[in-house]
Amino acid sequence: MRHNHSVSSAKLLLRPLEEPDIESLREWRNNQANTSFIRQLPHITSEMQSRWYAGYLADENEMIFTIEALQEPSGLIGSASLYDFEGKRAQFGKIMIGHPGARGRHLGTESTQMVLAIAFERLSLDVVFATVHIQNIAAICAYTKAGFYVKSIQPFSGGDPGTQEFVIEITKERYLALKQFYLAITFL
C-alpha cells in the first residue's frame, strides 16, 4: 500500500518502502541467518521481488516501513510492517534488522516503538497484535520492552511442525501509559 507515514528518532528514520529498497530486502530475506524464526521461502530472485513489490503496492491491507539508521552503520538497515487491518486492529510483524552491523543495538525495540506510534497516534488503532516464535529471544525482548504482553500460545504458523509461537498484543491504553518511557519520536 502506498502511504506517507514517517517517523524519526535520534537514531532511526521509519519511512514508506520504495522500489530502490526492495533489493536489500530481497538479499536479507535470502540470508538464512536472518530467517531462522520466520516462514521459510524458496530463494527469491530479483524478478520475484519486483512482482512482489507490484503486488504490495496494490494491497490495501499492508503498510511496510523501511528502517534507516541515522548513525553508523547509516542507511537502510531493515523493515517492519503493519498488516491484516480489521476495524481498529492490525498485526505488527515482518520486522527484520537485516544489516549485520545494526544487530544487537536495540534497534528492533526502537523500531517497534516507532511503528506503534504510527499505529496508535496516526492510524487511531485500538489494538496491535503479533506472533513470535517462542525461541526468538531477541524479538520477544524487543516486543516486551515496547509494551506487548503474551495473550496465548499456539502452533508456529511458519511451518516448523512441533514448535510454538506466542500471540502477543498491546492496546492503545497500554501504549499511552508506557509512551513516556519511549525514546523521543517525531512525526514527519
Notes on the protein architecture:
- There is one protein chain.
- With 188 residues, the chain is of the alpha+beta class.
- The chain has one domain: Aminopeptidase (3-Layer(aba) Sandwich), CATH 3.40.630.
- 29% of the residues lie in helices and 32% in strands.
- The protein has five helices and nine strands; from the N terminus they run ββααβββαβαββαβ.
- A nine-stranded mixed sheet has the order 7-8-6-5-4-3-2-1-9, with helices on both faces.
- A hairpin with a 2-residue loop joins strand 4 (75-86) and strand 5 (89-97).
- The longest helix has 16 residues, at 107-122.
CATH architecture annotation: 3-Layer(aba) Sandwich
**Radius of gyration, CA atoms, in whole angstroms:** 16 Å
Largest sheet report: 9 strands, mixed
How many strand elements? 9
Give the CA-CA distance, first to last residue.
Answer: 18 Å
CATH class: Alpha Beta
Shape: globular
Helix content: 25-40%
| Strand order in space, largest sheet | 7-8-6-5-4-3-2-1-9
By helix and strand content, what is the structural category? alpha+beta
Given as residue ranges, the uncertain stretches (5+ residues, pLDDT < 50) are: none
